[in-house]
Amino acid sequence: MLERWLTERVVSLMSVFPVVMLQGARQVGKTTLAQQLITRGYLKHYYSFDDPATLEAATSDPAGFIETLPPGSVLDEVQRVPEVLLPLKARIDREREVGQFVLTGSANPIARFRMGEPLVGRMGAVTLYPLSQGEQVGKRERWLEQALQGQILHVEAEQDNLWERVVKGGYPNAVLAPAPPARTEWLNGYLDTLLTREVRELAEVQQVSELVLLTRLLAANSAQLLNQASLSRECGIPQTTLRRYVSLLEAMFLLTRVPAWYTNISQRLLKTPKILLNDTGITCALLDVDENRLLQDPLLRGRMLENFVGMELLKQIEFTGQRVRLYHFRTASGHEVDFVLEKASGEVVGVEVKASSRLDADDFRGLRFLQSVVRERWQVGVVFYTGTKTLPFGERLWAQPVSALWETV
Fold it and tell me: Do residues 107 and 1 make contact, with C-beta atoms less than 8 angstroms apart?
């Protein structure tokens, strides 16, 4: 069984809050993580609302169901029974002990259903993403922690299997599939179930085919600015409907918006968010893309690698628990940085992604500009590329192999 680095953070939150919400897409491993907490003695009981009898008991008498729950219980897929949240709040208000319940949800209860409102101040929330590259090989990544301290390790690594990693993604069933055909079959089946059946549990979708088409278009435009007007014209979906679909995909943890980073500087900044699909394996399945296709299509290859790196950064932000936000940076004058990591205390790290084994000084143009903007808050700027060596390109500017993200341990 693969170790999930988020486990430690969940345990930490259980020592602070009466309730911890573990959220994430279907099949990313939430149930497995929750059951591991039971095995290790942090929790004692497990209830799944995917079980018809448990679902019926909770929906027929939400208050009675909550009152009879023993402390130390997991409630799995709680978005299916939002009615239990108010009774849970009432119980927590009477019994303020920490670590009483862990809830899991495959649809964002706060953003989508406003389910989390009754538990404000009583609940800690974390997001479980698909497996990180470090989790897949059993190495606890430290790249983010070190970069935020201005430190870069001299990693040298072969990248022969980089594109295999991109196409495989991080869903446990896809990672553990015995061969690529089995992996592709699982990914396609997962998407079919999610986009044509389970979506109906979350929202009223009149034309499922429209949602599928939009999801494929978003996959083709991953790691790009979210231009809803352009998408609306391309797929023929009214903008009001399209906005609702995008929010729905976010709520299902299939899509992440990366906001624009800006500060009070004279340059006019473009503040449109960038979109990332939450797994490159899913993205490649949506586009029917394999390793050979990626190697033949430079534009697609660049977008997939940027999406891949962005998601690895988000995973490290989540399991380290540091107060860090992920942004992108772009000015009207043409300066851009793929990703900006900013701590609440102000430190900034810049990241560029190049799907090439060759670099030159111009590849650092955006990072140098951002460095001049943030000045003393600058920690380090890195261009991740498909080469094998860590190389200096100026003061606190480095090129690193993409694999440094999980080889820095």
Answer: no
- Tell whether 324 and 279 lie within a shared domain: yes
**C-alpha neighbours within 13 Å on the C-beta side of residue 116:** 21
Residue at a domain's end among 76, 96, 127: 127
DSSP H stretches of helix in 236-343: 239-251, 280-287, 291-296, 298-320
DSSP 76: E
Tell me which residue range forms the domain holding 45.
Answer: 6-127
- Closest among 271, 254, 47 to 246, alpha carbons compared: 254
Are residues 383 and 237 located together in one domain of the fold? yes
Residues 199 and 323 in one domain: yes
The predicted model scores a pTM of 0.94
Determine whether 140 is exposed, middle or buried from the number of CB atoms within 10 Å of its CB (0-12, 13-18, 19+).
middle
Continuous segment of H or E residues that includes residue 52: helix 52-60
pLDDT tens for residues 75-128? 999 988 989 999 999 999 998 899 999 999 987 654 444 445 667 678 999 999
